[in-house]
Amino acid sequence: MGQQQAESGGAVDAQQGQRLHIGLVHWSFPPVVGGVETHLWDYSKALAGRGHKVTVFTGSVGAHRPCDGVRVIRHKLLDLSVGHEDNEETLKELREWFRSGLTASGDPIRLVHGHNLHHFSSAPARALKALQGDLNLVLLHTYHSIWRTDEGERIARECAVWDVHHAVSDFLVKECREVLRQGAKRTDLEVERTYLGVDTRQYESIPEVEEEPGRHPVVLLPARLIPNKGADVAILMLKLLVERAKGCKGKLALLRPRLVLTDPFETVDFHGERGQFRGKLSKLVEVCELSEGPGQDVEFRPAGIEDMRKLYQEATVVVYPSRFDEPMGLAPLEAMCAARPVVATGVGGLGEGGSALVTPDQDAEKLASRLADELWPLLTEPSLARKAGYMAREHVRDRFDLEEVYVDPMLDEYWTLLATGPGPYKGDTRQPSGSPETLASPSLSTSTVSR
Q1: Dihedral of alpha carbons 174, 178, 181, 184, sign
Q2: In this predicted model, what pLDDT tens digit does every residue of 342-376 receive, in sequence order?
Q3: Omega of the bond prior to 31 within 30 degrees of 0, cis?
Q4: pTM
Q5: 9 touches 53 (CB < 8 A)
Q6: What superfamily in CATH does domain 201-399 come from?
Q7: Cβ neighbours of residue 325 under 8 Å, at least 6 residues apart?
Q8: What is the CATH number of domain 4-197+402-447?
Q9: How far apart are CA 74 and CA 84, in angstroms?
Q10: How distant, in Å, are the alpha carbons of 280, 305, 316, 320, 392 from that of 220?
Q11: How far apart are CA 189 and CA 141, in angstroms?
Q12: Which of 49, 142, 57, 120 is nearest to 94 (CA)?
C-alpha cells in the first residue's frame, strides 16, 4: 500500500444538503487521454465543487488528482497496460480491494458509478455486485461505447444485473438495450440516454475565429491516433485542400492550411495499433508531398487534458472523420463550445451533438473529398467560420452544459436511489437544490493505493 496524504475536503455548497461520498470506477484516469477520462476528470471536479466527496477507483499508474475533495486509488488489475485474467482469483482480489476502498476512513461509500466496466474483463463489475448486499451499495453503470463481439457482449451482460443503466447517446441506448435485455432475460430492462455534457466554462471564453493576415488556417483533429479515428483521411483531405488552393488566383492561391493531429503520450490503445499506425501516417504525409513537423503542413502535437483549450484556440476549424460508429464524441462538443465549426462524418451518435455532417464512406479518398468540400468555404471565408462557430457555441451552451445536463440530474438520481434503498439515507428525499443544514463530515484523505 502506498503512502497516504491527508487533504482537506472541498468547500460545501450552501445550497447542498447532506454531503455524499461517491465512488467512480473506470479503467483509466488522467493523465491518460480519452473521452471517458476527460468526462470523469470534469465530473469529479464538479462534484467536489459542490461539497461532495469522490473516490476514483482506477488502474492508471500515476493517476492525477483533479482537485481537493477527490481521492484517487489504483489497482494493477484495472491497469489496461497489462493483461486481465477473468477468473476467481482476480475476482477475489478485486472484491477485497473494493471493500477496503469503499469502507475506508469511517466514511463509507454507498453509491458506486461505474463507467465502461463492460469492457476487457467482467471481474470489476462482478466484484462490486458481490459486495452489494453486504455493503448496501447502489450500483449505476454508464456505457460510453459497446463492442458488438461475442466476448464484448458477454462481458456487457455481467453489468445487466446492476441497478441503473445509462448510455451517452440515443444511438448507444438502442445498442445497449438489445445486448442487456438478452443478457438479463428481461424485455423491460431500461437504459436511459444521458448526454455527458462538457465543462463550458473551460472553453466559452476562447475568442471567436478571426482572420490573421499571413497566418495559415489550422485544421485540428482532436482524437487518439488509431485507424478508426480517421487521421489518414484527414491527411488526404489536406492534400486536396492544398491542391485546390494552388489552382486559385489572388489571395486564395496563397492559402495553405495546416493539419494538427493530437498525439497523446498517455492514452488507451485497446488493440496495440498506435505505434504502427503512427508510422503509416508519416509515410502517407510523404507520399502526399506534404511536410511534417511543428509549423509544417502536418504536425503531430503531443497533447494532454490540460492542452486542449490551447489547441482549440489555435484552430480555425475542427474535423472529426471517424470511420466507425462513434457513441457520441466529447471532443467535437468541446470544440463547438470554443466557437470552432466542426465537420464530422455522420456515424453513430456524432450527429446528436450538432456538428456539420458528411456522408460516411469506407473509401478514404472519397471521404476525404467530401470533407474537403465542406471545409473549403470555412477556410476561405473567415466570416462564415466565425458565424458557424458562434452558432456552435450557443448550441453547446444551451444543450450540453455539464452542470445542467449531467451533474444536476445525476445528483437527483443519486439521492432518489439512496433514499429508497437500505442504509443511512433511507427516507431522505432531499435534492441537490434543497438547503437543509449540512451535516458534519470527516475530511477526505487523498491517497494512491498500489497493489
Answers
A1: negative
A2: 999 998 888 888 887 888 888 999 999 999 999 99
A3: yes
A4: 0.87
A5: yes
A6: Glycogen Phosphorylase B; (3.40.50.2000)
A7: 171, 347, 348, 349
A8: 3.40.50.2000
A9: 15
A10: 19, 15, 8, 9, 16
A11: 13
A12: 57
pLDDT at 10: 38
Residues near 73 by beta carbon (within 8 Å), at least 6 away in sequence:
55, 56, 57, 58, 101, 447, 448, 449
Which residues of the chain register pLDDT less than 50? 1-16, 427, 429-451
DSSP conformation class of 319: E
Interatomic CA distance for residues 163 and 149, integer angstroms: 24
What are the grid coordinates assigned to 101, written together? 476502498
Nearest residue to 234 via CA among 257, 211, 268: 257
| Backbone conformation region of residue 214, classed left if phi is above 0, alpha if psi is from -120 to 50, else beta | left
Assigned C-alpha cell, 386: 466565425
User: Structural domain boundaries of the chain?
Assistant: 4-197+402-447, 201-399
d(CA 138, CA 164): 9
CA angle 403, 408, 412 (to 5 degrees): 165
3-state helix, strand, coil in the chain (%, to 5): 45, 15, 40
Q: Rounded to a whole number, what is the distance in angstroms from the first to the last CA of the chain?
A: 6
State the sign of the Cα–Cα–Cα–Cα dihedral 161, 80, 326, 309. positive
Q: Do domains 4-197+402-447 and 201-399 have the same CATH topology?
A: yes
The residue type of 347 is: V
Q: What angle do CA 217, 221, 223 make, to 5 degrees?
A: 160
Amino acid of residue 306:
E
Overall size of the chain counted in residues = 451
Sheet (strand 70-74) strand order: 70-74, 53-58, 21-25, 111-115, 138-143, 164-167, 192-193
Integer Cα distance of 279 and 292 in angstroms: 12
User: Each residue of 24-59: pLDDT tens digit?
Assistant: 999 999 999 889 999 999 999 999 999 999 999 999
For the residues of 332-352, what is the DSSP string, one character each? HHHHHHTT--EEEE--TTGGG
